[in-house]
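Page 37, continued from 36.
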């Protein structure tokens, strides 16, 4: 490859890249230097300025983005996609796999089925604590009316859940914890 009229070896390219990354790491460019760069670039046109993107390219981009969430736009992955993604990285297919050390309750609470149940509860209750009616800025928790551990058949039944804020959820469980103490 030629750089400024000279052929540069791969080793030299690697050294230049390494030197540039070290030289610029953590540095802030002063206002004076930014002004000089801005002035030097005035009058230069971007390589794609005024060029139209062909319709075929627009269609390819559109097809590749189907089903993907766009950050900050309020879009979300579909339920089908989330379930497929969850199954792809479950168990020994996950890079976090340590031979089945995770507790069963933790596996269930991290499952896509639990997350969908949780969202259904919040949506039904209009994202509002059903005890104190807090809405904005409060951390919401789904609460099982019939115990998660004692009634496994009701774990994902939407009517067995209620939306509570963190404080109300703690207050609800506090008497139970005190009763269990010897």
């Amino acid at each position: 490859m030629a750089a400024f009229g000279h052929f540069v070896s791969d080793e030299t390219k690697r050294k230049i890249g390494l030197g540039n990354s070290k030289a610029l790491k953590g540095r802030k460019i002063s206002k004076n230097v930014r002004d000089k760069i801005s002035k030097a670039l005035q009058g230069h046109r971007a390589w794609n300025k005024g060029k139209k993107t062909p319709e075929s390219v627009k269609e390819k981009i559109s097809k590749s983005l189907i089903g993907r969430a766009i950050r900050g736009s309020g879009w979300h992955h579909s339920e089908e996609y989330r379930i497929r993604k969850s199954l792809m990285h479950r168990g020994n297919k996950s890079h976090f796999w340590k031979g089945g050390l995770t507790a069963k309750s933790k596996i269930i609470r991290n499952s896509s089925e639990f997350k969908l149940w949780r969202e259904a509860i919040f949506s039904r209750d209009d994202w509002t604590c059903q005890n104190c009616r807090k809405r904005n800025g409060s951390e919401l928790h789904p609460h099982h009316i019939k115990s998660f551990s004692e009634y496994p058949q009701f774990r994902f039944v939407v009517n067995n859940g209620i939306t509570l804020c963190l404080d109300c959820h703690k207050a609800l469980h506090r008497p139970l914890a005190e009763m269990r103490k010897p």
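The first helix runs from residue 10 to 24. Flag for discussion at group meeting. The radius of gyration is 28 Å.
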